Amino acid sequence: MYVRIANADDAKYSELLCEWYEESARMRKTGIAKRNPVYLERKMRNGNAVIAFDDDDQVAGFSYIETYEEEKFVVNSGLIVRTDLRSSGIGKEIKHAVFKLSRTKFPNSKVFSITTSLAVMRMNTKLGYKPVTFSELTQSDEFWNGCKSCKNYHILMDNDRDRCICTGLVYDNLDDDYAKEARQQNNDDNKNE
User: Fold this and answer.
1) pTM of the model
2) Which InterPro entries does the record match to this protein (predicted)?
3) What CATH number does residue 107 fall under?
């Protein structure tokens, strides 16, 4: 299995991935926001997603990033793994790859995630995320509007976007090795122009 940054050629998988999100929501019964294939395609074309493949070159998993508040925040979102590959370790590889993408592409941004998945919470914690109240996450209406398709959206709104079933987690070490490397690369690129 392998994980790489997604590109325009991967857009052909967007509808399949959306089906996986819906299936996962039904299986977990906890609520997962629906994704739009066009939205996922845009993430792939912009290099703001990672995709995984199994040994037979069949899609195995996916995750993407989005920025908010003029890149003050970057969310790691939409981690999905093909059902027969769950517990194989590919989810952890995807999580690490999307985290690295976030830190290198947006080194000055706080990284956050909201989830109901214990497995995702564990992976985030190992990467250095800390649980936080929703007040410490982006306050962007665009982000929170993405929750509208979740069956628990009413809970979020009943609590003035302050609490829900999801747990919020933030990584805010803006001076980690990924960020230092990205800043150095940006400095080197600027000197060479």
Assistant:
1) 0.87
2) Acyl_CoA_acyltransferase (IPR016181)
3) 3.40.630.30
